[in-house]
Amino acid sequence: MKHILITGGAGFIGSNFINYFLRKYPQYFLINLDLLTYAGDLANLKDIESYAFIEGNICDEGLVKDIFARYNIEAVIHFAAESHVDNSIATPSKFVQTNVNGTFNLLHNAYLSWFNAPHCPKSGKENAVFHHISTDEVYGSLGESGYFTESTPYAPNSPYSASKAGSDMLVRAYFHTYGLKTLMTNCSNNYGPKQHDEKLIPTIIRNALQGKSIPIYGDGKNVRDWLFVKDHCRGIDVVFHSCYFGESFNIGGGNEKSNIELAQMICKVLDEKYPKETSYKEQITFVQDRAGHDRRYAIDFSKIHKFLDWKPSESLESGIAQTIDWYIHKYRG
Ligand code: NAD
Fold first, then answer.
1. Contacts with 69 (C-beta within 8 Å, 6 or more apart), sequence order
2. 4, 104, 116, 311: which has the fewest Cβ within 10 Å?
3. Ligand 1: distance of its center to the CA of 37 in Å?
4. pLDDT category, 149, cuts 50, 70, 90?
5. What pLDDT is recorded for position 189?
6. Is 5 exposed, middle or buried (CB count within 10 Å of its CB: 0-12, 13-18, 19+)?
7. Which residues line ligand 1 (CB under 6 A)?
8. What is the pLDDT of residue 333?
9. Which residue among 36, 37, 130 has the greatest number of ligand 1 atoms within 8 angstroms of its CB, and so is best to mutate?
């Protein structure tokens, strides 16, 4: 049985991934290391029994070393991070600590556990793999046209994206210097069930249902490419099971929308599901823009499509409908 260390598995994407992955591969044993920060919630994993949970910090050297030895870890899928750009503007040091130092601690313990010396894996650990989950935000901001490809130069603009870029660079270095079999995926904005309340789509739905104003930054014209979380999980799956070590793959939804278009779309669905006298759209309010707000992200996912036959399966309409149903249940019971 393959023993895989998942970090951050109580968060939004990690918990969706564990649910997806264990159903598909019951032969894997997953060890979920999660600090249970404000963003982690074990309720996200309430339907899962056959895995080990360890509450702890990816920055804790002794703990991570002990987990590699105790569980004979043969692969890592690393989700744990501080993930909210707004928080990174308020408290950047936390982002450097978790996203850079935490990733370093995992990489180095993977190396010590799997290798005798650089490029000399221990017997039985030749196929051990480290898969790092990253973001398209490392590429910076696009103008009106163009797409991020895997060869777009890194140009992170927020403390969050800079800390993720730093972690990506460490992953690259551990592949080249030590021969660690690394894989990396850089995805666009995810949405779907179990996302933390602080993020844009849950905020739009919650405030709409509670009759509060729906806050949209600036002029609302910042564009994001929306990826349904289950499509992201399928993308991680195919990369994780591939042999493209030392490479990265962009994963995108092919769904570009400005924030205002997205808010209007959600309000329209709510108008149909929960009609009231006036449209939810009237609750949309523009608020002061986020400092350094990137204008547009858009992903070219042709590499993962060409080499691993992955493409998104969910349209924005169907993904948003499922997401709204999930949040209506959460917020209205
Ligand atoms: P999340 O904030 O929902 O979850 C993060 C999880 O990591 C939480 O369970 C938290 O408790 C845990 N965690 C935080 N610090 C930790 C630490 N020091 N030690 C152990 N656990 C810790 O994040 P998410 O949205 O699920 O994102 C997962 C990964 O995907 C992150 O690496 C993020 O950068 C990346 N990503 C997310 C998106 C997105 O749209 N959500 C897009 C691109 C990339």
1. 113
2. 116
3. 10
4. very high
5. 96
6. buried
7. 7-8, 10-14, 33-37, 39-40, 57-59, 79-83, 98, 102, 133, 135, 164, 187, 189-190, 196
8. 73
9. 37
Domains defined for the chain, CATH in brackets: 3-192+227-255+294-315 (3.40.50.720)
Predicted pLDDT at 50: 85
Give me the pLDDT at residue 33, please: 98
